[in-house]
Structure formats: C-alpha cells, structure tokens
Design a protein that fits this description.
This protein is mainly beta and 377 residues long. It has a single domain, classed as AttH-like fold (Beta Barrel), CATH 2.40.370.10. The chain is 8% helix and 53% strand. The chain is built from four helices and 27 strands. The strands form three sheets. Strands 1, 3, 4, 5, 6, 7, 8, 9, 10, 11, 13, 14, 15 and 16 form a 14-stranded antiparallel sheet that branches. Strands 17, 18, 19, 20, 21, 22, 23, 24, 25, 26 and 27 form an eleven-stranded antiparallel sheet that branches. The chain has a two-stranded antiparallel ribbon with strand order 2-12. The relative contact order is 0.15.
Length: 377
C-alpha cells in the first residue's frame, strides 16, 4: 500500500526520477557562450501560463530607504495539467531585527490575464505593466495585514542570459520535457507603500524584479539555489544560481549581471556563488552558510573586461523558511521518505561592499545585500 501511495504521489509531485546524466540538460550557459545576454523587450515579459506542470512567478524585491527589506510576489502554479492555483505573497523584514517579520500568503480567486498576457489580475489583486513597458503597478488588498500599493520602475535595461534565458531538460534536445527561465530588471526605483496593521510602511527606494518560469516539477529542476540581490547608490549586482538533482548530473546553472543607472555593465552565465563558511543548522542537517563569496565576470558593450566580487559574513539570518510547513504531516513524511525532499530557505540581509573592476578602473561601494540559500533535496 505504501509503495502504491508513493507512486501516486510521484505521478503528481514528482518524487522519483531516473538518472539521465548531465547530457539531459541544455544549460543556458551554452547560449551565453556566443550571446552573453539579450536585453528585454516588452514582449519578453508576457506570462507563459503553461497548460502542463509548471510554476511561474513575478517577484518584486524591495529595499526601502528606511532600511526595510520587502517582497511582493505572484505565484501561478499548474499541477499536472489538472489544477491551476494562484497565490499572492508579501514579506517585510524590519531594520534592527527587533520587530517580527511580516509574512502574508493568500490564495487568489478569479485569476486571469489580459489578452496580451502582460497584466495579471485576480479578486483584490493586480500586477500591471505600463504601456511603454517601463514600470509595474502592484496592488493587493487580499490580506488586511499587508495592503500593497507599489510602483516599480526600471532604471536600467532588463535582460535574460543567452538568447532567451532558458535552460532545457530532456534526453532529446529537439523535444525537451522541461525548462527553466529567468528574466531580470536588475535596477529599479520603488515608490509606494505596504499598509500594515501597525501603520503604513513607505517603501520608496530601490528594487529588483524577476520573472521566473519553471516549466517542470520544481524539485526535479533544482536541488539547491543561491539568490543574490545587491543594491547600492551606484551599482546593482544580481544572480540566480541552481544545481540540478543527480538525475541531471548535479549540473550548476548561473545567470546574473551588473547594472548602474541607465545601463547594463555586463550580464551572462560566467558568475559563481560560493559559501565560504558553513555555519550548519543542527535542527535539520542542512549546511547553512555563515559567509559567502559571489563573483561576476563579463564584458562591457565596448569590450572591456569586468570583474566584481561581493564577499563577507552573512550575520544573523533574517529568517529560515520551512517550505513544506503547511503541507499535511503525513504527506510531508511520504515526500521526504520517497525523495529526500525537505526544502528550507535561509534568508539574510547584511551590509557588504561590492568591489568592481571595469577595464583598468576599480571601484568599491557599500550597499545592502538580500540573499537566499535554498536547500531542497
């Protein structure tokens, strides 16, 4: 009976997969070898809204001048082509760490898109792209604890790594069965607020936007993640790195870039994310990091070499998120037993200094880092 139950769970959640090897992933890094990055157009921001198993998100990361760090996110999920669900998430980290984090996560009803699939709407929630494609307006009254009214404007070009920002999964490159895509606005201006029960939080400051599509079961695509969002007065440094499960050869895929006001400095797949010190988490055995070393490499449009580093201690974590906390206990045990899946996200927000060299010029500037280390399986 238990084996049957595991198989039924695998059919939907994907708890088991054969070993295909690294040749079964066509990393976006292959594209980036000849085309490091492609600037985004308005059309590149359309929702895919796939009919098969997938998770698609639009996430707005917020770094307020007040010191607050926040996030507003729409998640559009399709389970095996059987059921579609939508969720709106809001999170606020308070400066100083004395006020508990604010977290709101609410299912959305009556979800849909405009004809061009550029705007998302649901009951009490909307994410709309401006006519010229230069800013989003995010509004949500789905939760009285966090009423969102934000405007996020792009102040440097958006990009995808390679030609289309997509890695493909499958043993036949002509007929992939899965995909992973990330599109970025690395440097944004944020206006507006999040109204909480304790008062209104002004989120005027900087931001980062990412549109992500996992066109397959998420834990089949990646076993662990590193996410990097650094914002300073002059520079933005962003990165998304994941390592596939052994079924795809534990292959690392990295996309990221550097920007300043009005321009991309460089972007592509020649970056790296390392945990230079392991703190460890005795409660669940994951190797929680204590310090990091993030590096970017590329070339400017006029051919100058670019190298940037962001290194240092993470300090106290902002939060540790048990992704499966709301899953019924017996399902959680089956999933963990069948696949080793027990996803946790570790979140940090230290002040660090970006060191960047463009050609022969070297610069250093302190800013705010928001970073996540995610362990899935």
């Amino acid at each position: 009976m238990m084996n049957w139950a595991k198989q039924q769970l695998a059919n939907v959640a994907g708890t088991q997969e054969p070993i295909y090897g690294p040749s079964a992933i066509q990393s976006v890094a292959q594209q980036a070898g000849t085309t490091p990055y492609t600037e985004l157009t308005k059309d590149d921001l359309r929702w895919a809204a796939m009919d098969s198993t997938s998770v698609e998100t639009q996430t707005f990361y917020l770094m307020a001048d007040s010191g607050h760090i926040g996030m507003a996110q729409v998640i559009y999920s399709n389970v095996a082509g059987i059921r579609t669900t939508c969720q709106f998430n809001t999170k606020v980290f308070y400066p100083g760490g004395k006020t508990p984090n604010l977290w709101s996560s609410d299912p959305l009803e009556n979800c849909g898109f405009d004809q061009q699939k550029l705007n998302f709407h649901a009951q009490g929630c909307s994410v709309e792209l401006s006519e010229d494609g230069s800013f989003y307006k995010i509004k949500s009254s789905t939760n009285k604890k966090s009423v969102v009214d934000l405007k996020v404007s792009r102040t440097a070009p958006g990009f995808v790594a390679g030609k289309n920002g997509t890695s493909f999964f499958g043993t036949d490159p002509q007929k992939p069965w899965g995909s992973m895509r990330h599109a970025f606005w690395p440097r944004c201006e944020v206006e507006g607020s999040i109204l909480t029960q304790a008062g209104e939080l002004d989120f005027s400051g900087r931001g980062f936007f990412v549109h992500a599509l996992q066109g397959m079961k998420p834990h089949h695509a990646a076993a662990r993640w590193n996410f990097v969002n650094f914002q300073s007065p002059t520079y933005s440094a962003v990165m998304m790195e994941y390592v596939t499960p052994p079924s795809y050869g534990s292959t690392g895929v990295n996309v990221g870039g550097l920007a300043t006001e009005g321009q991309l400095i460089c972007a592509g797949s020649s970056n790296s994310a390392a945990h230079s010190q392991i703190r460890g988490d005795p409660e669940n055995d994951w190797p929680e990091p204590g310090a990091v070393a993030f590096k970017w490499q590329g070339k400017t449009v006029d051919g100058q070499d670019v190298h940037a580093e962001l290194t240092g201690p993470l300090g106290e974590r902002l939060d540790r998120v048990d992704v499966m906390a709301e899953v019924p206990k017996f399902v959680k045990q089956i999933v963990a037993g069948a696949s080793g899946t027990k996803p946790y996200i570790y979140q940090y927000g230290p002040r660090l200094t970006l060191k960047i060299k463009i050609g022969d010029e070297e610069h250093s500037e302190e800013g705010t880092l928001f970073t996540e280390a995610t362990f899935i399986s």
